[in-house]
């Protein structure tokens, strides 16, 4: 795998960044990338064309040496337009444009842009670059930008696709930080992509093999996957097989990322790639302004899928696409819908929906998936909620094969821990009913020079360590502290609602007397009766009126579980305030009106309520599922053991919950530092602080 010259890439990125800094004051920070990314793409395409023209010029000159320079140039241009997979019909280059009359610069530059073949013009349209040119001219920045890039060496001969990808992504990271965006986009290091490709075990193809990414960004996942297959090919014949049989498929929501991806594929002359602009999580509607999933047909099934979906992206609310996504609720997302502030599991369900079915008779077919997530999809969502239901669906279908815990600080835009999920619907017999967890958090080395938040990297030795354990870990008797095999049911649990009787200091069931803080209504008391299912006693201080001359009474009564609160309370009030109610209703002859007056009197009382009841506690217990036992046996045993109080009743949830807790499974106790060592560190920090304060004087 090609290694990266980080100092070289840093220098190039910084040089490009200088042109963005020249836009300050004329463009807003979020507009910088609208200027810079397209001109990089244009210059890279131009470098490819210049190289093609030089090669063609040599070939034509060798055959027709008598051609004059003007005739040669005309013939080469004709061949370019007719034969090259992209072209520019004009004689312009960025360098020639920069050298011409400044008054003609805008017209000539626009002619140069329009001179590109349609496939390049489509890319520029997705950058909306013609509007950007208008802004550049208006702000007198077109000439400086062209001068910045007219000789910049961005051709494949000087900069590989891998290196160009790093430059794109480092610039996108900087633009994101400069504009204050938090889009959740975390570009994937190439060593991580290579690890994903190796874990997918994509063979050298002997027939059509499709690779898909529903959030392909600038195309890194797809391109590196194919490049790795080419690098691994042992013979020219195998390389031709990769080129002939492997097709790339993807979708990207960001127009600028999509444009970069298309340009990259164009330079590689990958004619078979199918990459679309749009949101892969929603249905495609040609009449809608926002394109949806254009790879959702019955035949859009893929052999291998890999992706790094954006972390924590909100898909609900006024700025989301919840209504559109829910159109898939009964089909693609039938397992469940995650919370609207994290669409990670929508991406996973989208990929699972595109798996090829396995032929039951031959065992042929099927698909494999590698996807990167943060920690949220592992355990977010309680039993019965969307995320848990999606995990239940995946595990009960036995699609989850393995999870690899990666080191932190691997990504450019975030330092968090991440996880590779491996899924397949064609598990071999040795994997069936099992999930492997690999703790690879210590498999890294420090980057010689940090790229944003990327301070760690996975070297070849670390990747080989992970791959070796994934391959060998399924064998019976294999032992490694960093590899654990689980049954799919090991992640299942019961959520049991339990009511138990709290005990007092004497360990006897407690009965407590306390103020009743809720509204003293029939609805609330009915809930108390249902919950306690036992006798409730009330002592009520009831007062009528709001002056010093008001009247009051102390009312005590008891309710049984099946008693009517309105009847008992009403009777108690009538007895306590018999004289007052007689005086109130004496002038009223109509029975209905008399009852209304009594009810109004009762409702108007000011109450201070104290009640006495059994001290019941309601709680939820999360109990591991036991596939070999009966819930009616092991749930009561668990409750008796863990709660050790009188159990009044319990109720299991109608379905199992599922969560995966890798940190728990690989927990390693680390003893605290000795007090002497902590004290030494404290005094060292104290001395450092004193030195800093001294420097401020």
From TrEMBL:
Keyword Repeat in annotation: no
Keyword match Cytoplasm: no
DNA methylase adenine-specific domain mapped to chain residues: 164-472
GO terms for biological process, alphabetical: DNA restriction-modification system; methylation
Sequence ranges assigned to domain N6 adenine-specific DNA methyltransferase N-terminal in this UniProt record: 12-147
Gene Ontology molecular function, alphabetical: DNA binding; N-methyltransferase activity; site-specific DNA-methyltransferase (adenine-specific) activity
A Pfam family of this chain: HsdM_N
EC primary class: transferase
Protein family according to the UniProt entry: Belongs to the N(4)/N(6)-methyltransferase family.
Protein name: site-specific DNA-methyltransferase (adenine-specific)
